[in-house]
Design a protein that fits this description.
With about 240 residues, the protein is α/β, with parallel strands linked by helices. It is about 30% helix and about 25% strand. Strands 1, 4, 5, 6, 7, 10, 11 and 12 form an eight-stranded mixed beta sheet that branches. The protein has a two-stranded antiparallel sheet with strand order 2-3. Bound molecules: cytidine-5'-monophosphate.
Length: about 240
């Protein structure tokens, strides 16, 4: 794949984000006054390699999301499309893949819930796909030890631990995940199991998935405390920009 490859990003943003508590869909929650989705779109468009960003919106909110994108300053070199999402994250990603124009040969999939990923991480993922990897995930080592459990027999009963995977060999995987376009489309056509990320679908095809360094600022805004952390990161960036 040459350095002439064209890259698009699909941002699934159609989830309700119930773990954050009641309120607007998660992607539309404000961080320092700007919707999380706009931060995520800007984080992707910050890469000079990205020529198109496809936002997959809540089906009833597609018009609102289109207006949001129109109302916020975004780089001129990047095109934007908004499409309605589906019932699952996978369906939403597929809706985004369906509208990609010809000429795009690298596709990133990035969760709207990771609004602060630095551009170096985005570029690192694109570079690894350009270098020939069919699928690339940014990831970090884990701080916590992870236990595999048997689901509780009844609600309220204790879960039994069945295994402790070796922590040094585990990675917490982030987005954007990067793909050779044809590989990702084939994965979405072939794999029907419910999965929590796109790379695992490529794994199921038996193709290699490689890891590049993730970044602590690429964390997923999931719980209320994450909103505080995200605002603290933005405040630190603003303070650093002042110097
Ligand atoms: O629920 P979770 O945090 O894993 O969702 C990851 C991403 O997938 C979020 O950005 C969410 O908006 C998106 N999603 C979607 N369509 C759905 C469910 C989730 O686009 N039906």
């Amino acid at each position: 794949m040459s350095s002439e490859s064209r890259t698009a990003v699909v941002i699934p943003a159609a989830g309700r984000g119930v773990r954050l508590g009641p309120g607007a869909p998660k992607a539309l929650r404000a961080l320092n006054g700007t919707p999380m989705l706009i931060h995520a779109v800007r984080a992707m468009a910050a890469s000079r390699a990205v020529s198109l960003v496809v936002v997959v919106a809540p089906p009833e909110g597609a018009a609102e999301v289109k207006t949001l994108l129109d109302d916020h300053a975004l780089p001129e070199r990047t095109d934007f499309l908004v499409v309605p999402g589906g019932e699952s994250r996978q369906e939403s990603v597929r809706a985004g893949l369906d509208v990609l124009p010809p000429g795009i040969d690298i596709v990133l999939v990035h969760d709207a819930a990771r609004p602060l990923v630095p551009v170096d991480t985005v570029d690192g993922v694109i570079e690894a796909v350009r270098d020939g990897a069919p699928a690339v995930v940014p990831a970090l080592p884990l701080a916590d030890t992870v236990k595999q459990v048997e689901p509780a027999a009844a609600p309220g009963e204790a879960e039994a631990v069945v295994a402790t995977p070796e922590r040094a060999r585990l990675r917490a995987v982030q987005t954007p995940q990067g793909f050779d376009r044809a590989t990702l489309v084939r994965a979405h056509e072939t794999v029907t199991d419910n999965v929590t990320d796109d790379a695992s679908m490529v794994e199921q095809l038996g193709l290699p998935v490689v890891v590049v360094p993730g970044h602590e600022e690429a964390f997923k805004v999931t719980r209320p405390l994450d909103l505080l952390l995200a605002e603290a990161v933005l405040a630190r960036r603003r303070a650093n920009d002042g110097f």
